[in-house]
Amino acid sequence: MTDTRPPVTDAQRDAMLAAATAAMARAHAPYSKFQVGAAVLDAQGRIHAGCNVENAAYPQGVCAEAGALSAMVLAGGTQVQAVLVVGHGEGLVTPCGGCRQKIREFAGPDTPILIASPQQVRARFTLDALLPHSFGPEHLA
Ligand code: THU
Question: Which of 24, 49, 112, 141 is least buried, going by the fewest C-beta atoms within 10 A?
Answer without folding.
Answer: 141
